[in-house]
Design a protein that fits this description.
Jelly Rolls, 2 helices, five-stranded antiparallel β-sheet, elongated
């Protein structure tokens, strides 16, 4: 079992935050909880596309799990609904994450009928309530079994075959 983290690489829509477009994406995918975006409107959300990673190509996907690093922008305890969508905008997983402090929370792992192709087309929707929040990181952890290769390599040199045949 192996894991890889995929992060946002594009924006589909955004409203109600202090940053928009590529600036928003750059602040939530930089692996730095010191940067982020702040909710500026009671109605706010954004949808991002997620990067692909060749690590799980050809392998078996066991699960995907959304994580969000966020906190209050000063007015209470925000609830952020985080959704994982496939490339046809079907809701695969939705979790209400309640941030009583600035921290990283993870949703429930999604495990149903996942393939590398599905993971390559993932999107994430971040939809906070009207309390006010600051979001610093959004990422998905992909748990997978790497592809197995039937080839067994041999270093160059001399080999003695004691019995049997070798097909080349």
């Amino acid at each position: 079992m192996a894991t890889v983290i995929i992060r946002p690489d594009g924006i589909e829509s955004d409203t109600g935050f202090d940053q928009t477009g590529t600036n928003l994406v750059e602040r939530i995918n930089d692996e730095d909880t010191g940067t982020g975006v702040t909710q500026t409107n009671v109605t706010a959300n954004f949808t991002v596309t997620m990067a692909n990673d060749s690590a799980y190509a050809g392998g078996t996907i066991n699960s995907i799990q959304l994580s969000v690093s966020a906190g209050s922008s000063g007015r209470g305890t925000p609830t952020i609904t985080g959704k994982i969508l496939d490339n046809s905008d079907t809701d695969l997983q939705s979790d209400a994450l309640v941030f009583s402090s600035t921290t990283t929370l993870s949703g429930t792992a999604y495990t149903t009928s996942l393939t590398p192709t599905i993971v390559d087309g993932l999107k994430v929707v971040i939809d906070p309530d009207s309390t006010g929040c600051a979001v610093s990181e959004v990422f998905i952890t992909v748990d997978y079994e790497p592809a197995t290769t039937p080839f067994v390599g041999m270093k160059s040199g001399k080999y003695k075959i004691v019995s049997g045949k070798i097909k080349i």
